[in-house]
Request: fold
Amino acid sequence: MKKGNTRDVILHTASELFQRQGYHGTGLNQIIEKSGAPKGSLYYHFPNGKEEIAIEAIKLMGQHILESAREDLSEKDTAIEAFQHHVAKIADVFDGKACVDGLQIGLIASEMASSHESIRLVCKSAYEDWQALYTECLQRFDFETERAKELAVVINSLLEGASILAQTNESGWPLRAVAKQLPALLVH
Amino acid sequence: MKKGNTRDVILHTASELFQRQGYHGTGLNQIIEKSGAPKGSLYYHFPNGKEEIAIEAIKLMGQHILESAREDLSEKDTAIEAFQHHVAKIADVFDGKACVDGLQIGLIASEMASSHESIRLVCKSAYEDWQALYTECLQRFDFETERAKELAVVINSLLEGASILAQTNESGWPLRAVAKQLPALLVH
DNA sequence: GTCTATAAGTAGATAGAC
DNA sequence: GTCTATCTACTTATAGAC
Reply:
């Protein structure tokens, strides 16, 4: 977990807490406490305070999710199998009651959309990156460009929504229900 | 807006604020201020404080969404048209920058899932009600029971997720992208 | 049923020593 | 780069008058 410098430790802990408890639900003191980072150094590394930590944390989450998605999607031979594999991996995370590491910016995105423009834009950018990856993957499996783009939005929605249901049900089954219906959606 | 008694005014205002700013992002003072309700009466009507207000507010949102969904879904002659109509109505809400009235418990559901069991259960119950309605509608259009139940979960996920994207983009287009792909999903 | 005042705690943020 | 102490503002919640 520790990457050596204090900044990364703070950011990693903040990512974890923000995505589970949200922006307002997570205190700076809690981040300090859980990370074990020295309290005094927080405003040294992030002079703009909580908002700056949140922005950097969201960028980190975005990249993390992008990487694991890219990995999942490259391991299969059809679009259906690829996305089903991706969804199944996410479903597994919600079964264990362990921390939901690196999944989901939906909570903070909803929370801040109407109040913090800068955070809204970072979230928007993360979603665009994921959709670009999905689009690219669908094109590789011979989906026409426009349809691929639209399906990417739909898949993105599906994953965000099913993740909320999974949290609410404390189980990955909503994601598995989604995986099961993917073949109907992904017809040429 | 005012339904006569103070309790309902508080609840209505709380619903609005909770779904836009979340639980931790909304202060009791803000609810009082915005509702114009007398401050002293808050703990008279809700002796258990903020958590009780949240639980009742979520129930209210759940019923409100259920009713408008029932209305939307009963106006068309095919499953595809019915759900497309429903999604289109939601999309329109996100275009105007007005308050998102009565839509979406996803934010508060994510926020509280890991910390307040009682709130998590109320959200779970609301989702189950909506899915039951979707299932019923799909069965009416000759979908087999098991498939109808699974599609209901998928549609629920789709709506929750696309609503987050709509907020993040300040536009209803993600919901319209979903509507456009519904015919592929809803094949017998 | 409503109102005022206030308790008790915690939030984010800052200043200055080291 | 880190630590400690502290400031101000705000939070939920309560007590007691009306």
Notes: Chain B is about 75% helix and 0% strand. Residues 6-185 of chain B form a domain with the Tetracycline Repressor; domain 2 fold (CATH 1.10.357.10). The interface with chain A takes residues 20-25, 104, 106-107, 109-111, 113-115, 120, 123-124, 127, 150-151, 153-154, 156-162, 164-165, 167-170, 174, 177-178, 180-181, 184-185, 187 of chain B (CB under 8 Å). The two ends of chain B are 43 Å apart (CA to CA).
